[in-house]
Amino acid sequence: MKKIFCLVSLIFSLQGFTQNELQIPPTVTTSTVDLNIQTGNVNFYNNIPTPTFGINGPILAPTIVAHKGDNMLINVTNGLPVTTTIHWHGLHVSSMNDGGPHQKILAGAIWSPAFEVLNNAGTFWYHPHGEGKTDLHVSRGIAGMFIIHDAVEATLNVPLTYGVDDIPLVVQSKAFDQFQHIAISTEMDTSIMVNGTIDPFLNAPSQVVRFRLLNGSSMRAYNFGFSNGMSFYQITTDGGYIATPIQLTRLLMAPGERVDILVDLTTFTGQSFDLMSYASEMPLGIYGSTMVGTAPDTIPGYSLNPLNGIDFPILHVNVGAQTTTPVPITTIPSQLVPYVPYNAQDATVNRLLVFDTITTGLGMEPNLAEGQFGINGTVFNMDSINIRIPLNSTEIWTLQNKTHVAHPFHIHDIQFNVIEKNGTIPSASETGWKDVILVMPHDSVKFITKFTDFADDVTPYMYHCHLLHHEDDGMMGSFIVFDSTNSILDLGNENNFVKVFPNPTNDAVNIVLKIDLKIDAIQVVNMNGKVEKMISDIEMNQTTYSMDIRSLKEGIYLLKVISDKGVEIIKVQKI
Predict the structure, then answer these.
(1) Which of 11, 352, 405, 462 is the most exposed place for a label (fewest CB within 10 A)?
(2) Cα–Cα distance, 118 to 352 (Å, whole number)
(3) How high is the pLDDT of residue 441?
(4) 477-525 pLDDT, tens per residue?
(5) Are 273 and 249 in contact (CB under 8 A)?
(6) Rounded CA gap, 450 and 433, in Å?
(7) 362 near 238, Cβ under 8 Å?
(8) Kindly report the CA angle at 34 between 29 and 39, in degrees rounded to 5?
């Protein structure tokens, strides 16, 4: 153990570390929120400014605090010189408000999603989700917590005073290049930050304290524990509270996961200890463990990272006096929120998603530890819909990993219940409501979920690996939840009742009906779901139409024909 800490100390000293007080992100507690994405600079090392991205500040973002039932209006202004997005990770919102790659925020533009908070109390977060740019924008600093409270939580005896006994911990690893700029697509993520603070310390009161743990790293998993060996108590998973606290000494968290823990510090006045990652104990194949893959299928440069497979400190904690306000909580609750999972007998659909490498066609076998990775033999395409799901469908999804690296799988829109991991019952810490689950190499996971409340025939949600360069490289798919009472007849090239020509076009698109229909409207919709053009003045027995699209920007649009036979959607390209 001494050798391990000496190595970490050497890393810290070479990078010019001094101990810094943990920064607590400010909160926004109003239902109308203004978020300004901006560039900035932070002096992480040796007073050398590092270019960063942040929201309402140079790095990271304010913590949004809301209550179940709140009607949120969030005005997101993109002050960057490039396009980005903001995704509400874990929130149950419509696909139009989800903030995936189809909800682009152009440089200088404002995106204003509006939604009711439907989630139960828990810790969620928000971050960019642009096509091929997620890792860059998150690593540069755009990430923030989204905390939700509700009436049930108010009856629990748990810490809830933000920044005092309820501490947000956004844990991230980052890589820096020779110019002290944040780097991506490198395995040298040797800098550990909490809330954007390097080598942080926290002064905590000698009472029960809540740590809201968010693994906001691009790649690295953490095996949390405390240097003094004390136990702690898990009280939530990704989607909110579990039924009873789980006593632990280790907690493995993959990128994207959130867990709230309670730490009883009532007898530790005047003492200090470290929140650690015991990576030496992590199973092989997880990014951050001793080894990922076997030769020749390994991650280039992985063994050169001095943090991989060792135990290292994340946050130094000094314990002081109890608080007077709030009134100190000094006991761990015995009960939390009843947990009623979905019933597997209610599932009517089973789906299989296979994680595998994608053949490049250059005569070389793909690296099973490095990729390129895909899902079900394909990589992400902005213009493709991979899965169509009926509204209110209860489904069992099986995730099968055929690669040498563990993938944290995340799905938008819903929370799920894990029912099997490699054919066995999951650990207690993985029961409850989840939206991220780690799938080990050559292993499988089975979960059950239900797609409720929101249907949209045009705008998709995402599912993907939350190792961000895997996501950016295409390990992602899209799904649409459709309402069968107003279903799309077809979304492909073999149209049922409409012919469109010319396609692509630069001036007008002509529409010819193949069968007798009563047309209600014809719309041209952009990939953000906005109606750009519409014909609503439809004459009886009309079978041909022409729509002038010269005013539209170049790109892909969806032509939506709404009739008494249903809705048909055809992709149209403006050139």
Answers:
(1) 352
(2) 28
(3) 98
(4) 999 998 877 544 443 434 456 788 888 888 888 888 766 677 888 888 8
(5) no
(6) 12
(7) no
(8) 120
The 10s digit of each residue's pLDDT in 420-434 is 999 999 999 999 999
Convert the pLDDT of each residue in 86-142 to its tens digit: 999 999 999 999 999 999 999 999 999 999 999 999 999 999 999 999 999 999 999
Q: Which amino acid is at 120?
A: N
Helices of type H across 425-502: 468-472
The superfamily (CATH) of domain 156-336 is Cupredoxins -  blue copper proteins (2.60.40.420)
- Closest among 184, 98, 102, 95 to 141, alpha carbons compared: 184
Q: Which residues contact 429 (CB under 8 A, 6 or more apart)?
A: 234, 237, 246, 248, 251, 252, 259
The secondary structure of residue 136, as a DSSP letter, is: H
CA-CA-CA-CA dihedral for 399, 402, 406, 411, to nearest 10: -30
Q: Using CA atoms in the order 152, 435, 466, 134, what is the torsion angle rounded to 10 degrees?
A: -60
Pick the CATH number of 31-154 from 2.60.40.420, 2.115.10.20, 3.50.50.60, 2.102.10.10: 2.60.40.420
Task: Report the alpha-carbon distance of residue 105 to residue 181 in Å, rounded.
Answer: 25
Q: Are strands 208-215 and 544-548 parallel, antiparallel or unpaired?
A: unpaired
**What DSSP letter does each residue of 52-119 carry, written as one string?**
EEEESSSSB-PEEEEETT-EEEEEEEE-SSS-B--EEET----GGGS--TTS-B-TT-EE--EEE--S
Domain 498-574 in CATH 2.60.40.1930: yes
Domain spans, the chain = 31-154, 156-336, 344-486, 498-574
Q: Give 390-439 pLDDT, tens digit per residue.
A: 999 999 999 999 999 999 999 999 999 999 999 999 999 999 999 999 99
Please state the φ and ψ torsions of residue 68, each to the nearest 5 degrees: -55, 130
pTM, entire model:
0.85
Structure tokens at 310: 């060792």
Contact between residue 508 and residue 547 where contact means Cβ atoms under 8 Å apart: yes
Element (H, E) at 135: helix 134-140
Distance CA 85, CA 109 (A): 11
Residue 322 burial (10 A CB sphere; 0-12, 13-18, 19+): middle
Burial of 492 from C-beta contacts in 10 A (0-12 / 13-18 / 19+): exposed
One fold for 156-336 and 344-486: yes
Q: With bands split at pLDDT 50, 70 and 90, how would you rate the model's confidence at 540? A: low
Superfamily classification of domain 344-486 = Cupredoxins -  blue copper proteins (2.60.40.420)
Reported confidence tier of residue 2, pLDDT bands at 50, 70, 90: very low
Q: What is the pLDDT of residues 22-80, one digit of tens each?
A: 999 999 999 999 999 999 999 999 889 999 999 999 999 999 999 999 999 999 999 99
Residue 292 near residue 405, CB atoms below 8 Å: yes
Average pLDDT over all residues of the chain = 91
pLDDT reported for residue 13: 39
- Show the 3-state SS of 538-569: CCCCCCEEEEECCCCCCEEEEEEEEECCEEEE
pLDDT at 496: 56
